[in-house]
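A reminder from the course coordinator: this example appears on the midterm review sheet, so study it carefully.

Given structure:
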């Protein structure tokens, strides 16, 4: 319950990151979600990723929409900036914040209802604009918060808890993200923290719009036989195309990668690299058309393709596209903001 405060005392031997923080320093309030909800596992993976990357919590801004998923930023990174927007409007508020202060690390958290119904337009445009952010879609196929109606990501033919069949076609958010121009697109499962945590770390390091669709079962309304978003279904149909490991430059690489078709990918932040272990030797994440085809073929067979599905080798963000000023607005002094009457006169003359 949110009114129950967590004890402030830490065990003195808890492991610390390079900043001297424990994982507890990256936690938030006590979750109010149902016990077993996939969204809580995603919060745990986010805590782990930010802790492992030694990111100072005050450098992060987390924004969300409305839904059980969008409530979760209250349960992690309690010392970061947060903004709970209107339903489906997280992308535009985040875009504005990012343009005003490019120095923060932006995390957008949303649900399938929030992103694929009311916020579908916003989702599409934030991807095509390349806003530098990590967009986490906690995908359970239902509107959990409003008691389990089918969402737009529910598969055609899948069954609701009380037996109704979904007759509408599903929106595949990873295909849409690739099509819209996202430069980092992944899918994962809330029950697989070994896959999800490095994907989140790589997405944070990516210098552009990074999208992760995380299958995150709703135990209250969509975890029964006949659902394609249940724990059992996702476990049985999960086809991982690759496994990632992420190293910030300062860490020695100790894992042996002599086997398994490993490729190295520069990850944006200075010197950091991603190591990608191919599980499917034919899968090439830099091939956009190939990625779209593989995602569509898997969906046809009822498989859930997971891993890093698409990574553009030449990603750029919105600030580069718009050639914006390199400093955050809150760092500008009066001299930068006020060009003086001579300059104003020149601008006005140019408009006459
Ligand atoms: C403008 C507006 N329309 C409708 C609602 C009602 N509403 C609240 S949450 C929600 C759907 C949430 O579904 P999803 O984003 O999938 O989140 P989940 O609860 O499944 O994690 C809806 C329709 C609202 N809050 N605001
Ligand atoms: S209703 Fe579903 S999505 Fe919401 S907290 Fe419960 S299990 Fe999670
Ligand atoms: Mg949902």
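Designed residues:
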């Amino acid at each position: 319950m949110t009114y129950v405060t967590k004890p402030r005392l830490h065990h003195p031997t808890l492991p610390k990151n390079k900043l001297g923080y424990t994982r507890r320093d990256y936690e938030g309030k006590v979750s109010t979600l149902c016990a077993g909800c996939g969204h809580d596992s995603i919060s745990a993976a986010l805590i782990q990723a930010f802790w492992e990357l030694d990111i100072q919590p005050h450098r992060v801004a987390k924004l969300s929409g409305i839904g059980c998923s969008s409530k979760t930023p209250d349960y992690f990174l309690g010392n970061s900036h947060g903004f709970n927007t209107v339903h489906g409007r997280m992308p535009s508020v985040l875009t504005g914040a990012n343009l005003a202060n490019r120095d923060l690390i932006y995390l957008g958290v949303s649900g399938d209802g929030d992103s694929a119904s009311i916020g579908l337009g916003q989702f599409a445009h934030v991807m095509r604009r390349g806003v530098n952010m990590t967009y986490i879609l906690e995908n359970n196929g239902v509107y959990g918060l409003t008691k389990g109606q089918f969402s737009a990501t529910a598969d055609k033919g899948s069954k609701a808890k009380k037996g109704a069949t979904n007759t509408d076609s599903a929106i595949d958010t990873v295909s849409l993200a690739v099509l819209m121009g996202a430069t980092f697109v992944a899918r994962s499962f809330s029950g697989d923290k070994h896959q999800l945590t490095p994907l989140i770390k790589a997405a944070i390091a990516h210098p552009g719009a990074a999208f992760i669709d995380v299958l995150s079962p709703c135990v209250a309304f969509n975890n029964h036989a006949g659902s394609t978003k249940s724990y059992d279904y996702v476990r049985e149909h999960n086809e991982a195309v690759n496994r990632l490991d992420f190293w910030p430059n300062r860490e020695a690489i100790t894992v042996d990668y002599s086997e398994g078709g490993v490729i190295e990918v520069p990850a944006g932040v200075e010197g950091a690299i991603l190591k990608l272990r191919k599980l499917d030797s034919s899968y090439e994440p830099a091939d956009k058309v190939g990625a779209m085809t593989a995602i569509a073929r898997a969906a046809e067979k009822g498989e859930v393709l997971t891993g890093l599905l698409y990574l553009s080798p030449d990603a750029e963000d919105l600030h580069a596209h718009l050639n914006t000023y390199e400093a955050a607005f809150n760092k500008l002094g009066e001299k930068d903001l006020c060009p003086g009457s001579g300059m104003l006169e020149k601008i006005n003359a140019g408009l006459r």
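The CA atoms of residues 159 and 249 lie 47 Å apart. The chain has twelve helices and 13 strands.
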